Queue: 2 jobs
Job 1
Amino acid sequence: MNIHEYQAKDLFAAAGIPVPKGKLARKPAEARAIARELGGKVVVKAQVHAGGRGKAGGIKLAATPEEAEAKATDILKMSIKGLPVRGVLVAEQLDIAHEYYLGIILDRAAKQPVIMASAAGGIDIEEVARTSPEKILRHHVDPTVGLRAHEARRICFAMDPRGEVALQMAAILIKLYQVYARTDASLVEINPLVVTKDGKVWALDAKVNLDDNALYRHPDIEAMREDEDPNEAKARQMGLSYIKLDGEIGCVVNGAGLAMATMDVIKAFGGAPANFLDIGGSSNPDKVLTAMDILATDPKVKAIFFNIFGGITRTDDVAQGIAQALAKRKPAVPIVIRLTGTNEEKAREILTSIGLSATTQMDEGVRQAITAAGGTPRPVGAAG
Ligand code: GDP
Ligand code: MN
């Protein structure tokens, strides 16, 4: 789950990290009122689940409350990376002397959180990572011990050798690590962390991504859910695991392991999956219906591929779900089905009655799906 900057800043502030004063506005007039409270000079910031708001024009400075209202009017009409802006953070302006980057993410390969710090913050950190990786310092933390004060100081003195700056940063880093650990985050990020001209360090931006599997431990954070992608919301409410990807083959699969194997096999044959979607072990027709609804609204999907291995899952349930979904709304793209296992004969009867067929072999199904999506399956053989 992602939360907005203003919500992440609330978490930061509660942990004692200095953040500029500010409030969320849903309407231009509210932005003006907040700006007046803050003394007039403010920054108006789009609240959307997308990075690069600055570059997209979603962050604007205003010198007066009237100007804040005008900028808020503009920004509240925008969409950034396809996401409509439904709120703006109106915050006091800071006099920035330098911008740094500070983040903590989970390094799955190392099984440890890794702190990333750089004096080249503010701009696209991915770009810095690509073109000059030596400008980013990485430090792994032993999660059973936590971040120790001397580690934090070493990292921060490397970012800025001035003691009065580095020590403020180290105090922030320790608190940032506390936020990361306490909220079961997968990422916490301050970009930019800034030093103002009067020598004070602030979190000017804030990003927190949370681990969905740990949210049950944090009802207060779960309550912050806002502006969720409609398809992700649908999937979550129906108990489907759904992750959108960039390819053209929409996948509906029972079981996470099979779903991953399906994506691998599609890739091996030269195709690209449009999503990961696990309808679960004991599938019911409603889940299939929801899955088809989700894929039908993804403009990138050029074919829908069902890969069903019936164990606990009854394949006739899935076939029933497909029949019901098609009766309701026929997707504009072709459907390819691989289906085998429990109640297979019954499932086939149902599919035949609606004019569909199914292969029993996964590789054959994948080849058909790639062809149906307008591609040509690559031979998979000795070359692997
Ligand atoms: P992002 O583009 O979505 O990452 O949004 P940020 O919050 O990181 O803001 C982008 C840039 O806008 C920052 O790097 C700053 O250069 C600038 N900016 C944001 N807030 C302020 C502010 O209060 N004062 C000044 N002078 N610049 C700001
Ligand atoms: Mn930023």
Job 2
Amino acid sequence: MARIVGGLTTSHIPAIGGAIAKKLFEDPYWKPFFDAYPKARNWLDAVKPDAAIVIYNDHGLNFFLDKMPTFAIGAADQYRNEDEGWGIPKLPPFKGDAKLSWHIIESLVAEEFDICHCQDMLVDHGFAVPMQLFWPQDPTAIPTVPVCINTVQHPMPSPMRCFKLGRAIGRAIESYPEDLKVVVVGTGGMSHQLDGTRAGFINKAFDLMCLDKIVDEPETLAKMSSLDLVREAGAQGAEFILWLAMRGALTGRVRKVHSNYHIPISNTGAGMLVLENAA
Ligand code: DHB
Ligand code: FE
């Protein structure tokens, strides 16, 4: 049977893709950010997951405001990246695992989560940047299942709904008959607001509280409303629901392996977390 080995989270800011392309790892602005990732990499090297569920949000590349699914899951063996206009290089296609995707989709729909399933799906920086951070040698080698949650157009799913989706994803993985080690990645966050009168808003105290509580008390965070999250973390800080979906999927004993927080990266409180999940 498949087994969930842990969860990873990281902010997915497009500027990170630019910094990777320019190899700015030792640059004083970037160093405190990039220095955290080898520790996640060491954990991945020890655990050696066979597949990654990547919970992210699309920012207008594959879904636009005219058609916005709440939950969309890729069901393909390959996912293409495209130019989003941020000036970051386009990456080669990412690998999918359509069989695992369909198992998760079937299981979620049986649990009354109505999923938009996508046999052709472009993946944007919300997916691609975390893959580059956690799998720097070859971000396109590990088979993935992209799980896309709407965080860009209201109404968004509530934090609790996303946490429960994560729970259901966890049960789906554990019922998969193949002996796969699966890691669950949640991307985005932490606090940021890119537009409006609060543009540039970052809430360090709130981010650090979330980074702490998501380890052992995720339900407390999941009880927030979407509006609470926008108020505390900014309009785009609502991406934290993706972290809650990741945390929901960890169904066993959860242990924090590593975390990092650094502000600002671009307009964002940049957070990273590695959680191990024991059966
Ligand atoms: C930024 C952060 C994001 O999450 C995003 O999707 C785009 C830009 C930023 O801080 O620049
Ligand atoms: Fe984003």
